[in-house]
């Protein structure tokens, strides 16, 4: 687990499939870490800061995926 003094909660290393819509296209990527405060998605089509989006996460041990509302707080270009 990487430490970062800006984080309020620790990140857990995990690979989870994340699906979302961007520019009228459905995209599937993976997150490699997640915490109570957020997650990072490596993507070729980043959203704008402040943009609200719906993410569908597929966890290996759950029967159904989870859909949640997210707000983009940081973008690395």
Structure at a glance:
This protein is mainly beta and 77 residues long.
Please tell me about this protein's structure:
By secondary structure, the chain is an all-beta fold. It contains no helices and 5 strands. It has strands at 12-22, 25-35, 38-41, 52-58, 66-71. It has a 5-stranded antiparallel sheet with strand order 3-2-1-4-5, with no helix packed on it. β2 (25-35) and β3 form a beta hairpin. The radius of gyration is 13 Å and the shape is globular. The two termini are 23 Å apart.
The general outline is globular
Radius of gyration: 13 Å
Strand content: over 45%
Total count of strands = 5
Lateral strand order in the biggest sheet: 3-2-1-4-5
Largest sheet: 5 strands, antiparallel
Structural class: mainly beta
Determine the number of helices (DSSP H or I, runs of at least 4 residues). 0
Q: Residue ranges: pLDDT <50 for 5 or more in a row? A: none
Helix content: under 10%
Any key phrases for this structure?
77 residues; mainly beta; 5 strands
How do the strands and helices of this protein lay out in sequence?
Blueprint: E1 12-22, E2 25-35, E3 38-41, E4 52-58, E5 66-71
Antiparallel strand pairs: 1-2, 1-4, 2-3, 4-5
